Structures are given as C-alpha cells and as structure tokens.
Task: structure prediction
Amino acid sequence: MKKLLFSLWLLSTTLGLRAEDGHQLWLRPHQAAPVTVVVAAKNSTLLAMAKQELERNWQGAAGATVTLTLKKDNAIKHDGFRLGPTSVRATTEAGLLYGVFELLRRQQTGQPVADKVFNPSYEYRLLNHWDNPDGSVERGYAGHSIFWRKDSSFVVTAKDKALWQEYARANASVGLNGAVINNVNASPLILSAEYLGRTKAIADVLRPYGVKTFLAVKFSSPVLLGGLKTADPLDPAVKKWWQAKAKEIYQQIPDFGGFLVKASSEGQPGPQDYGRTHADGANMLADAVKPYGGLVMWRAFVYSPNDKDRAKQAYNEFVPLDGKFRDNIIVQVKNGPVDFQPREPFSPLFGALKKTSVMPEFQITQEYLGHSIDLAFLSTMWEECLGSDTYQAGPSSTVARVTDGSVYPQKHTAMAGVANTGLDRNWTGQDFGQANWYAFGRLAWNNQLKSAQIADEWLKQTFTGATSSTASASDWNTNFLAPVTQLMLASREAIVNYSMPLGLHHIMSATHDHYGPGPWWAPPKMRADWTPPYYHQADAQGVGFDRTTGGSNAVSQYHEPLAGQFNNPATCPDEYLLWFHHLPWDFKMKSGRTLWDELALHYDHGVQQVRQFQQVWDKAQPYVDAERFAAVQNKLRAQSGNAVLWKDACLLYFQQFSHLPIPAIVEPPMHTLEGVIANDAVRPRQQPRP
Amino acid sequence: MKKLLFSLWLLSTTLGLRAEDGHQLWLRPHQAAPVTVVVAAKNSTLLAMAKQELERNWQGAAGATVTLTLKKDNAIKHDGFRLGPTSVRATTEAGLLYGVFELLRRQQTGQPVADKVFNPSYEYRLLNHWDNPDGSVERGYAGHSIFWRKDSSFVVTAKDKALWQEYARANASVGLNGAVINNVNASPLILSAEYLGRTKAIADVLRPYGVKTFLAVKFSSPVLLGGLKTADPLDPAVKKWWQAKAKEIYQQIPDFGGFLVKASSEGQPGPQDYGRTHADGANMLADAVKPYGGLVMWRAFVYSPNDKDRAKQAYNEFVPLDGKFRDNIIVQVKNGPVDFQPREPFSPLFGALKKTSVMPEFQITQEYLGHSIDLAFLSTMWEECLGSDTYQAGPSSTVARVTDGSVYPQKHTAMAGVANTGLDRNWTGQDFGQANWYAFGRLAWNNQLKSAQIADEWLKQTFTGATSSTASASDWNTNFLAPVTQLMLASREAIVNYSMPLGLHHIMSATHDHYGPGPWWAPPKMRADWTPPYYHQADAQGVGFDRTTGGSNAVSQYHEPLAGQFNNPATCPDEYLLWFHHLPWDFKMKSGRTLWDELALHYDHGVQQVRQFQQVWDKAQPYVDAERFAAVQNKLRAQSGNAVLWKDACLLYFQQFSHLPIPAIVEPPMHTLEGVIANDAVRPRQQPRP
Result:
C-alpha cells in the first residue's frame, strides 16, 4: 500500500501537478502535434529557437511540414513576415521567429491563418526597465530587478541566464525587439566596466530572441564616472569621452541598441546646465553611436518648478528645436502632457514635431493605476491615445499615424513601455499585469489592434480552459472568456471613475508612493507642481485647471478643431473637462446634472464597478486554477477597499469647497476626512502578499 | 460702522450663539413661563433644587402655582411620587425632585399630566463607574474620569464641583439615586484617608440631588492597605478591620451607600482564596455596614480558566448559596451569562436565586458594541433582557419581575449600569451615547418602559427643533423625530447583525480593546476562555457552542419550557442558535436558507443598515446644529467602515472552515483575511476625534 501511494505521488509530481504560480505567462506548454520544420536559411541560434517553438507547440494538422524561408520580399518591412498555414517568410531571422509565434498564437486562439503579410507598426518596440544597479526598481511592484542584484553581484548564474531567456522569449512572442535594462534616472555606474560586463552577458542571452539591449545613461557621466570637469556637450573632451565609451560598448556588444536619456528633467543633469539645448545634447550623443548604427532616445519629459502650467512645458521647449536633431535620434514623448495619469489628453507634441522622429512612451507598470494591487488592463488607455486625432496634418493624423511614419517621413520609428516585471514568480505581481506586458507588445507591433482582441488572445493563452471537475470546458467561452474580457475592458475606466474622473489628474497620495488618494497633499515649501492642489485648483467657486485661452492657454498647443473644442466647456468631452476648465460646482453637465453630482456619481460608479468585477471573478472560479483564482480574488478585494477610500476621500475633501451634500444615491462614506488624511501622513503598513 | 459691528458681535456672544458641544445633555435651557412654587415642607437643599428646576424650566400655564408636598401616602413606595398638573406629592424629598423632573419632562415632550402615582421599579438605581484612582477609566471611551485626577490630586476645585453637580442633576433628572464612583477592579487605595476625603467631597455634591455615593472595594484591602496577614472573612481581625473602615467612612459620609465587590473573579482576590464561599465573604462585609444601613452588592461575574463552559459557572457557584446571604446583600448579575455581548440570552441566575436579592447589571459603556464610535441605542437590548420570561415562578416571571420584588419578596431591589461618562465635553464621546445614560435611568425607574418612548423622549429633549433657516419646525416630527427614532431602535440589532449574528458571541478583537472583529485570536498559552475560538467552535463540520444536553448542558440551567426550546435547533430562536448549538454549515434554517448563507446575509444586512442610518442622518441635517450633526456624521462614517470590516473578516475567516462561496447577493469583501489579521496584530492608530 505504501509503495502504491509513493508511486502515485511520484506520478503526480512527474506530471507537474504543482501549484500554479503564473510564471509561464501566456506561453503555457501544450500537447504538441507532430510537425516537420524545414528551415530554408543558414542555421542560426535565432532560427533554432523558431524551429523549437514550432516543434514544441504545433497545434495544426498532425504530421504537417512547415517551412521557414529567409528571402527578399518588398512587401515586408523591417522584421515583418509573410504568413501561410504552413509557411513563414521574412527578410530577417527575427521576422521568421515573429511569424512562428504569430502562427502558433493563431492556432491557439482559434484565428484563421490566410496568406498575409504582417509588418510591424514601429521599427523599435522597446521595454524601458526602471531598474537600478542595486536591484531596486523605481515604480516596480513585482519584486526586485530581473537584471541587477541587491548585492551588486556581477556573477552571472545559470539561474540568471534561464530567467533572462524566459524574459526574452516572452518579449519575442509578442514582437518586442528591444530592452533598456536600467532606470532612466540613471546611475553613472552603469557605464563602468563591471556593469558593462553584466550588460554584455544579458545582451548575449537576449540576442537569440531578437531582443536588442539598450542602456539609459546619465548625461553627467563624463564628470561623475570619467573625471572630466564638464559634461558640456559642445566640449571636445566630452565628445571624445562619449565616443570612447560608445566604442568600448560596441566592442563587447556589436548590436548594442543605443542610449536612452532623461536630461535636464526633474533634477537630472543635462545640456541646459551648460547653456545648451536639448538638441545640442542629443546630437552629441547621437554622433557618438552613429558609427555603429546606434540610436539615441531623448526624453521630452521636462518641466520646471516655476512654470504656471507644467502641461505646457515640453511643447514649449521642443517645438522650437524641430528639425534640429540628428536622424538617429528619436524624441521620446509620454502619452500625456503631465505624467502617466489614469487619463490625460494626448501630448500636444505628437504631430507638432514634424521634422523630428517622435516615439510614444507608455507606462506598463501601474504607478498611478493601483500598483500591482488593482486590476487595470491598460490596453484601452493606449488604444485611446494611439487613436486620438491630432489633426496636425489634417484629419486622421492620429497619434499612431504621426509616430509610425504614415504621416511624416521619420527616419526611425519606435514605441516604448515602462516595464512592470520583477522577480516575483508571476513576473508582474498581479496576474493580470501580465496582460499589460502582452498588450504593449501587441500594440507596438500593430498600433491598430483593438483591446478586445488583445484581451481575448491573452485570456485564451493564459487561462487554458476548465480546471474544475464541475465546470464543462464548453461553458468556458460563455462563463469565463466573455465576462472576464468585459471586466478587463472596463477595468481602466473603473479606476478613472473612482480616482480621477472628469479630467481630474495628479491628486494621488505622495506618502503612499502614488497609491491611493491625496488631493490635500501640499507640505510647506514643496514645489507647487508636485502637489495635488496645483492640479485640481478646488476652491469655493469650483474645481479644475483652467487651461483655456483665458487660463494657461495650454489648449492652444492643440491643433484646430481640438483647440476650439477643448476650449469651450460645452464642447469639451466630459473626460477632459476639468483638465481644461475650472468650473463652478453647480455647472450644468451634458447629463443635466450638476458638476458636483456628476463627480459624486462617477466616484460611486467606480466603486460599484470594482464590486461587479469581484462578482465576475468569483463566478469564474470553476475555470481557473485555485492559486491564480485566490490571488486575483485577494487583489480585487484590496482594490475594492481602495476604490471606496478614493471615493470617500475625494468626495469629502472636495465637499469642503463645494459645501454641497453627497447625493443620496451615492453610497455614504465609511471614512472620515480626518481619518484618511491622518493615515495618509504615515507610511503604509506592509501589504500582505496573497 | 466699527462700533455697530462690535455691538452686533457683543449681542451674538451674549445670546450664547456659540458652538453646540452637547454638554447640556437632555437638560437644555428653555424660555421658562412665570410660575410660583409653593413648598409644603421644611426647607432643604434638595427641595431648593426642585424649586429651582421648576422656576427655570416651567413650560405650563404662565403664572401657575405649583405645590410640592411632603406627606405620608401609602400608595407611594420608596422615592416615588404622586403627580398632578400643578402638584407633586411624595414621602421623600427625593421623590419631590423626581416628580418635578417628571412634570417638566412631560411638558417638554408633550405628554399629558393626569393625577397619577409614579413608583420606581427598584429601590436602588445605580451607575457603576469603572474609574481608576489615576483618572483612567476601564472601558471608558469619553476621556478621563470625572471623579479622579490623572495626577492623583486631592484638591477639589470649583470646576470639579460644578461638573459633579451637573452630573448629579442629570442623574436625578432620570431618577438615578446612586453612584459607585470607582472601578470594580478596585484599588485598595480607594479606602485610604486621602481618597476617602475626596469621596466625601463628591458625596457632598451628589447628595443635594438625591444621589448616594458607594465605593467598590478590593477584598484583600485589609492585607494591602491594612497590613494584616490575611483577608479571610472569618478571621476576627479582618472583620474588625472592615468594621473600623466602615465606621471611618460613615463618620464622614453618614448616608454612604455601601460596597460593591468583585471577588474571586478574573484574578481578583476573594473569599475562595481562604477556602470560604462567596456568602462568607459577602456576609462579613454586610455585617460591617449593617449598623449604618449600608448595602453590599456582590458580583456574580465569576468563572475559572478550566471550566468547559464559562457560561455555566456563575449559576453553579451561586445557586447552592441561595438563602445564605444577609438581607443587606444584593447579588449583582450581568444581564447575560458571559459578558455584555451584543446579544446573549438572559443569565439563568435570574429567577433561580429565589431567597436572595438579585440585581441586574447592564453595561452602558459600549465595550463590545463599538466604544464611542458606533451608534448603539442600548435600551432595546435591556428591554429585551428585562422582558425575557425566566418561567422560574411560572409564566410571566420576567427578568424585570424576578428582580424588582414582584415575584420574590426581596429585601432590597436594585439595578446597576456601567457608566459611559468621561471628561469629554459631551460626557459620552458619541452624542448618542447620552441616550444610553438616559435610557438606563428611565428603565431603572420603570422597567416596563418601551424603548420607543425613551428614544422619543430623549430626542425631543436633546435636539430642540429646527435649527436651519431652510427647515420648518413643523417638519421636525416627520423628517427628524420619526426617522431618527427608527434609526435608534434598529441600531443595536444592526451591530448584532454585522458583528455577532445568530447567537455568535465573544469573537471580537482582543488587541483593539474589544473593538472590531477577531474570531481568529488565540495566542499560544492564552487561557482558552479568553479566546474567540472557544466561543465560536468553528470547524469543517460547522459552527457554534454546543450547550445542549448533549454538549455542555448549560441549557439545563434554564427553566422549562425554555430548556427544551433552546435545546432543539428547530425551536431555538435564530438569535440564540449558535449560542446553544454547534450546527453544520448547510443546516437548514427556518428561512429555508443554509446556515452559511443566513450568516452571510445577516452580516451584509448589518452593513446595509449602517449605510441606511448614514442616509437618515444626512437627511436630518437641517434639524440639527452643525456641530453635533458633523460629529455624529463622522462617527457613523467610521462605524460604516467598521461594519464592513466585521462582515469581511468574519465571513472570510469562517469561510476557511465552511469552504462555501459567499452568496452573490452579498457585497463582495473589500478586505483580505491576511490583511485583516495582520492589522489586528498591531495596536490601532489613534482614532481622530471628529
């Protein structure tokens, strides 16, 4: 008897019936059908990877033969590919790999495979990791860095390499082809020999999956690391230092991608310290990497403490420089003019820079959208931005089209996303955070994709069908896929509703690392543009930031008809209303309700939405493994409490100015304003890990 | 112009247009009509007080003459009185004072005044103050003691006296005639010359309002304070010490009420330390105060760590002693057999002690019902207990009737309430806590009063009509009085619902001083009967404490037909179900639902009730002064959050055993069990005072 039990135990462990930890992302193992793969190209590590993927995961006709062909094809751009039911053709090895992943994805998600060319929207599709040399991750909510160690160890272990390989494979599976592996608030150390050594090791592991390695650099590195007296970009010694550094890097990493630079921004050093322009600084670095085909991504996230409207400054600084950047520079622009808020209008720089390559930067990590606690499918937010029409070159000048080369003849195109990965076993802390990594990759490949399709794809690949004996697999579509897709699609708007509806922005808690409400936060001597009251401007008269022609005039940075539309509260869309207008509490909304009531209803609706998400998820239990079910259930519970906190705190705070009652149909507050403010003043307790 | 403004300011301050702090309780000043008061008795301080009340607050016919007559009247018992529209007759001075207050109450609350005798249900109507000599108050949530000072100062200030006088007047206004002014967990210090000096000063201030002073004493005082080797009640030296102490007290306070004793209980010393019985101990003390007409109140709140059912022990210890107590002893019995829980069945000692005077002890301070945060009108709880039929002398042997002398010929009758007063400006922390002080007095005077009437009376006297210019006074009854009365009447049941429904008990947090949920709390080596799992007994099979004949058999301490009714889950009332039974999670309730679903629905209903209270209160705003409106609104908000915490914590905790889903119609949890338990393990942050 004992022997039998032991055998059963052995069997069960062998079959891998272990706790589901989400580590395999959307790349879950399948019972593969037999397939023969013919590679019509010179052997390479990259092609070996492509072949292996097909052999391990083929779900098509048993015994089929699939050919991978590397061949010139004018219809194929960059690392795109041409797909057939049993063939992939491309002009690059990476293209073949992406074609293989596309073929397998279509098999798994039940999409047809017809003969068709798939070209990427952007040449560079990059993750930006805000990972520090000490292993911490700025705005990271999923554990320490996957690249750098706490003890600054430079020993590259087999475990490191295995993890990096899994990471690279996940990127490749959604078409991501580059990674900036350190924080934009860069340490000069990253350019030291030791860190470059580890960078080379990382690059070597990423390369076989077509992922190029980039580094973020500190503009003052020549001083801090090189011992020079200046980092002035026009100084010959500085130029020489960077040229030498570039050479040193490319000797070790011949396909090194290039530099990402945050300069003259939020206290970071930059060319303006020496009276030079952003163009002067960027061009100097661009010249240094040019010989090797390197790229410089120069961030436009700039603002100074004294500006009356932070939202205007990037436009004001960069538009005059249009046309003055080298052609291997891309100006990297955050999706909105302030900072990754739950909702912002698109940055007016999109489309305004007509002679400069411009790339959008999105934030995958949920700095302002609930860290790794709240469930936020960000694809809808990015889709909203990419689909926004800038009108800068006439109608249909969407953010997507003015950045992907469709409108302006950009030399290079790219899209960046601030990564949400960490050492947490499931990579992203919240299991649904994986969907944002996935969605970012898919949208960077095809900026016309719809979020509904992306959610559908991700769910089908990530949750592989009925897991409970009481649930039939045929119910899966109806009872799991459909409602959970709807949950995902509504999730970002729910967060907007319970945190910053109707165009409110930047009213989060500073003491709790941007998690939770903090509209009151304004310590003495704090620079105003870091405090919520600067943004919501609530007073007895009303609420909102007046960016109309009568106010900061930020509205004029938008092209007509937007400027006129945004400038008039009657035509300004509700979702941007308080972004552009300071309006009285009793302002009559399009709904017929007063602004105050509408605000209260939005907050309350957000809370009710999260509760509804909880119920959807509870009903999904039979279709999900116990571990991920419980993990997400616990996260939703915490989010639900957080939603109520947001609602209560903001309504009670703003009520001090409006002096109006909270409408009776809104759930009464369960917090007192005093209590919430007192708790905001202390550091949070450790969130228990579910 | 400046002069005019100054005059206006002077006028407004003179008229007393200051912030409403609730300090005046239900005794608010009125524009009195002229009245002539004729006192047909010898002048006395007490009668002067009565006369003054009439002159200051008369609301009857202007120019009326009211006579106060002290005269023998066989219909009048104790300090009762005979009332007419313009006359009060009594056999005691205190009776006249109570008659005056009754007359004024009826004028103010619009009740008719016909010729009628009003007799008190109990001879002694007492507050027990759990106030320590250092000024702290055990289970006090309204600031420090009104009697004792933090710095143990014995200086009696004019401010002290003014406060004690206000306190005594409030007591007298509802018929309370005694106060035990220190904690039952008594310090021996209270019998030292210094503390007796301050006690005399207090007694001197309380006396003119008919309030007698009592002290709680530590049984081992002869050892701790007197330096004796023993406190054995049969030891002659011990007897002598107490006799001398009694003499010392009565020399200073000739009308001193007597002693309250908590002995051989929760670690307090007592006669059992010397192998003597409770009767031995109580009788010795009774003998000491007998010559002066003093009383001994001996608490029956006893239980030992090793008993299998704490609920049984008081009965087991005291029933064999029935008839063995001196006639100036009253055994003081808590309303329920465990400890002031939100709901308990009545203590089986009521009616079972047939030859012993027994007095009920209620808890006015909200130790287990939300401190001074939650709004709990406890009158309904006391009414429920007093109205419970013990059947000990046939039907209609209610707790009220077996304690007030209607059933058994008790030498003395009394009722005690653990006070909720403190130095907080509004006396009780939560403004509605005043209603419990009021209700306790009213029920001690008349144990047949209905809570609806008490609430109506209290509201009419405490909130004196429309205060907002937009609210018409004629709407007051409909829009304020009726809904707020309903709120009060439902408030205790709401707390039962969201904290300990269906007979659950003692599952509160120990780390947060009995505020909030703690069903999990059971540190290693903690005595079991102080831990919630001892009481809820949750396991995979079910939940509840089996006190049936097949279990601890506590049920047999009740007289038939109760014992049989409680013993059978089919006939046991739902509200006591888990008090008497351990039942399976899928037990079919009278509602047709399973026990688990019923439990979940009760928790959720409690939450929804509090939210409804919030809305009732919000609508009451035009009828309440801004200060008390905001204070109560803030308390209700905090209570609302606490209700959700209770619901989430208990359902998630019990779900670990039931393994059943929370019904879909229940609001999904916003806490995680891990989070709640983690927060329970730390000391609470300071509650902000609204």
Observations:
- Confidence is low (pLDDT under 50) at residues 4-17, 684-690 of chain A.
